[in-house]
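Appendix B, Record 12. Input sequence as logged:
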Amino acid sequence: MADCTLLKGCPFFNEKMKNMPALADQYKNKYCRGDNSKCARYMVYQKLGRSAVPVDLFPNQLDRAKKILQGK
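Logged structural output:
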């Protein structure tokens, strides 16, 4: 599978993680390269659009993503 189409312009990696390249690469390998269906950021984007994705939402914060999707 290809990289997530949102990866290049993802504010999480370009802003929040720019000073932590090793940790950012770990997240990218797990959530952005290949199957991104487990990425909390992508889940919110897919259902609610880019503007609904909090900049500080980590890819592994599935519980938080589910709350956002439920409107809580």
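The chain has a mean pLDDT of 90.
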